[in-house]
Each structure stands twice: as C-alpha cells, then as structure tokens.
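Reopening closed ticket. The problem is back. First fold of the pair:
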Amino acid sequence: MRLAITCNGPGEFAGWVRPLAYALYARDPELDLSLIFTPDDYASGREADLARTLFPQAHVVNPSAYVRFALGGDRAGLPDRVDAVLLLGGDLMHAARVHARLGGRLYSYKFASHRFAKRLVRVFAVDEKNVEAVKRCGVTAEKIEWIGNLAIDGALGEAEGRFVSCASSPAIPEGGLLIMPGVRRAEIANLVSFFLQTAVRLRTILPDLPIAFGIAPFTTREQLERALEGGGDWRMWGARGRVVSSSGGEAIESLTHEGMRFPIVRDAMRVARAAACVLTIPGTKCIELAALGVPAVVCIPTNAPELVAINGPLTYLDRIPKIGPVLKRAIVLRYAAHFEARFRYFAQPNIDAGAMLMPELRGTLTPGYVAARVAEYLADDVARTLAAHRLRALYADHVGASERLARSLMESLS
C-alpha cells in the first residue's frame, strides 16, 4: 500500500504521526509511506529530521520541497501515485493538493471543510464534539468514524520507550519536578530562561527537590544555548544560563548561581511518570501528561503578548515598526479574554473535564510567584493524587486510537 500523510507542527507529528506510523508499520512492514511536512508558523523546523530518525524506511519531504511540489515542480522523490492521502495536521488544502497530484483517496483526521467535503472519503474523529463539528462542515454522517485521540497512544508509546530520539537521557528521581517549557521558537527564546529562574527560586524553597528540564528533541542544543545566553525578553524576568555536558548528559546551568544545574531530558514522557509534578504551558503535552496520570501546573503568561505565535498572517504583525507590536498585543489579549470567557480554561484536559484538574496560572507571571505556587502544589499530596486518578481516567477510552485508525484505513483500501 502506498500512503502519503501530510503533517505540520511538532505537536501533530509527536502526538499523531508517530503512533499511527508505528501502528501502520506493525500491520504492514512493507508499507510505502511518504511523510510530507507542510509550512506552519508553529513548526520548529526539525520535524522532518526527527521523522527520518524514527522512521528511516519512510520517504520524508520537508516544507520547502513540498512547496515546490505543490506549485507544480519536481516530485521530491514522491511516487507517481498513491492509494491514499491522509491529513494529520495542517491546512486541508495541502492534503487536497497532494491528492490532486498523486491521486488515491482523500482522508482526514479531525479536520474538514465545506470546500473539500465531497472529496473526503472519510474523516476520523477525535470525539463526539469533533463529529458534530465535521458534520457542520458538510461531511455526511456515514463518512465520519470516531477513533479517538491519537495523542494518547503517542504519550503511552513514548513512555514505553517506543520513540527514542536520544540514545541516553538522565532519569528523574521519584518525586521530582519536570519542567517542559515548550518547543515553538518564541517559547524556547523566552520561556526556557523564565523557567530557569523559576527553578532557581524553587531550589531556595525546596533545596532537596530534584528538578529537570524536559526539552523536546525538536530543539537543538544550539537553539537552547542562544536562548539561555540572551536570557529572554526582559519582561519575562528570566535568568541567563548555559548548557553544560557531563558523564550524566546535558544540563542547564544558571550563570548567576554557581553550580546550580538542572539535567536535560529528551523524550520527556519516558521519565514523566516518575515526577511528582510537571510545570508546563498549554499544548499537546498537557493531554499526553493526562494520559499518563501525571499532575501538572500550567502557566499562561501574558507578560509580552506580542511575542506569542498566533494563527495566520497576524503572527507577523509585531514586525511592523512601532505600531505593529502594540496592535498584536491588543489582539492577543482580546483573544485570550474571549477564549477564557468561552472555555474558562486553557489546558485541554481542563476544557475536556470541565474542571481545573491541572492548576492554571494566568496573567503577568513572575518566576517567584510560579515557584511559590508549585511548591504549594507539591506539598498537597491529596490534591495531586486525586488529579492523577481523574486525569488518567479522562482519556482512557481513547487508548488504541492509532490501531483503530490503521485498521480502518487499511480495510477501506483493501
């Protein structure tokens, strides 16, 4: 079978593509799989490289090669035809363009639109809300199939060591804190230093607390070093630092607190289960942590809203001299207020549960404030234990989504 999958950012690749590709290859080791990465403002730029590492038997197309292909250029090594094209992240128009050039049947996971409703053979839905949303896009009920959230299998697979991107990674002693600052460029540039200062403050409150940074494999050491050297935007009150190496692996070291180091772990879900708590930001990682039953504190800082990446061309608004940053700040703050009024919560597990299972810290945040709140949460064993049970149960029905999708896809093409 020849299958082309279109994907975009790090969350979609880690949460959706990895578990599905694993399930597909388990069913058909001879599968001719093409992974096509489309342009995305949130992408790290390393998705294609990591895909080649994890799935060397697949043909991987990076965004620039895809653009040339989409505009009628060379095929970038893609086959003349495929049996199916599956959207696993990004705009549906990209999957439709690949379908137009390579043929086969057009499938989508989660997303649909009136424009392509008739061309879609099937849409695989995440949950019942997604089913209704797809119907409103003009897709008939018989074309929609619930399979669940692929990110759950992504988290479980990583926790089991199925998707190893780094040969060695230090372990977290039982009861420690894992800090996951994000993977987007703006997040690395500003939040790593913010969380470094938070970790330093926590060490003054809880000197014996093991603390590690979960840095995604999408982020290079060079990117991390540049971010730590600059210290982030001044409004984030971050700390300057550096990356150091030892026999135990890489670590982040504070430049203002000599000898204060925090180990770096890649493929963080492999060690997250040992942590008493995770400190992070909204994103796919929150769903993954929920699937593992790991309590988390989620930060939504609005210290410098104009640095946030948002959908569409407005993300570049801050590059306009003088007036641009002011306009983008106003737009981001207005959107955040609208989002909070509509959903009440920012972390997806909280939205899905309709309850604050993961404590959220919002607004203009300081490292000292975040450190104090995390210390309080770490001291509340009852709250964290209850949260762990409720988080694990929240997505229990979604386990096996990758196998269900792989089976359905192959059966429909047989």
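Second fold of the pair, where the issue appears:
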Amino acid sequence: STGYCTLYGDTAGGFAILKDVLKTTVYKLADLINRKMGGEPIPLTTIKRAPTAELKLNQKDEDSLGSYSDLDPIVVGYVEENKTLAEIQKETGKNEEYIRKIVTLIDKSEYKRRQAPPGIKISPRSFGRDHRMPITNRYKPSNSPLS
C-alpha cells in the first residue's frame, strides 16, 4: 500500500495472490499454514525476519513506516473505509503527522499499483477498482484526508 516494494522485483509475476492482503494478515496466514500442515512449510526464519526492501544495509520497513500493527489500521481506514484523517486519528490514536505520512505514501504509490500484476480482491474496497487515483499532474483528491 505504501510502495515499499520494487517494480519488477517483489512485484514481478503474472498473478499476485496476496495483492489485497494486509501485512499483519500475511503473518497470520503463514502461522495458520504451518499449524495446519505441521512443521514449517513456511520457515519461521521467513516469518520472524523483519520486512525490508533491502535497498541499503540493515534497512527495515519499520524504521520509516512504524510497525505494521500501527500501519494496517490506517490503510484500512483510508483505503477500505474511505475515512477522513480525523476519523482515522480518533480510531487509531495515532498522531496526525504519522497518518498524513502514511496516506501520502499510499497516494504516491499509485503508479506502482498500476504496474503490478492482477490479484484476488478480498477486502470490501480495494486498490485498482474501488480506490484508484490519477497518476499525472500532481492530482490530489478533494475528499482526501489531506485536503
């Protein structure tokens, strides 16, 4: 959602099975698969390793995004529930500056979503069909929490 992916790297492929799945849900799914299948078909080292774009030494997503447990409710509020900054702030308890940063990253990453492979829609309102923005002329929607 925030663009922490590399085009033609981790977004490459013909079909993105996890395209509409929040990071915290990915971890829950991995744990569930391991429990149901027994053992570690998904190695714990993969699950426990901090997410990173690996663009520089010792970089971690959380260094600039905060934790995914903090981030995901903002993504849900903004993308899936179309809430205002004030509503998101009230529900999450996060400060306005952090929420603005995340929403800005989401909006600025539209060009990456346009180049990503298709995937399954599981949320009530998702990128591509329900939440889509122009990518030219510095467009800023009038109903954005940032307006």
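Update: turned out to be a display glitch only; the data is intact. Helices lie at 23-37, 44-48, 61-65, 68-80, 85-92, 96-108, 110-115. The radius of gyration is 16 Å. Please close again.
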